[in-house]
Design brief:
The mean pLDDT is 85. Strands 1, 2, 5, 9 and 10 form a 5-stranded mixed β-sheet that branches. The chain starts with a helix and ends with a strand. It contains 1 helix and 10 strands; from the N terminus they run H-E-E-E-E-E-E-E-E-E-E. With 160 residues, it is mainly beta.
Length: 160
């Protein structure tokens, strides 16, 4: 009977020790980064950075449009891109709830890298380009850093 209790204690201790730590969840920024978008006002001399009082952004992530809700007084926003094999993501932007959306297509090429059991694969985006397909509030776009490996640098400027 003593041997059985030692065996059970050893199995219990081994199961506690073998539980994964940091590999269980993807919390340290190892996951697929989002695109960082900032805003500019078009004027005659140059394009100046601006804060948008109200912003509604949606994206087609492969299963239809996903709304990211209403943002108030924002100077930048982080939006996920598609993680399937599609070479582009369509973004929809408006500044008023009843306004017609502007449609922006962000094109890219991707590579995948294995990170951990908890995170799985991380997508990296290169060769970013963009075009305005439906112009309403957004008049044009401008590419900042043309690759996404983290969320620190601005990748896309929307010109109002």
């Amino acid at each position: 009977m003593k041997i059985l209790s030692y065996i059970l204690l050893a199995v219990f201790a081994f199961s506690i020790i073998s539980c994964g730590g940091d590999d269980d969840i993807c919390e340290s920024g190892e996951g697929t980064p989002r695109i960082k978008i900032r805003f500019k006002t078009i004027n005659a001399l140059n394009n100046t950075l601006r804060t948008v009082d109200t912003l509604y952004v949606s994206a087609d992530l492969g299963n239809g449009k996903v709304s990211f809700g209403k943002s108030v007084n924002v100077d930048s926003i982080l939006i996920p891109l598609r993680v399937d094999d599609a070479p582009y993501t369509d973004l929809y932007v408006k500044t008023r709830l009843t306004q017609t959306e502007s449609k922006i297509r962000v094109k890219y090429s991707t590579t995948s890298k294995y990170v951990s059991p908890g995170c799985g694969f991380k997508k990296s985006y290169q060769n970013l380009s963009s075009e305005v397909l439906i112009s309403n509030i957004i008049k044009n776009t401008e590419i900042g850093q043309n690759f996404i490996e983290n969320e620190d640098k601005t990748n896309l400027f929307l010109l109002f």
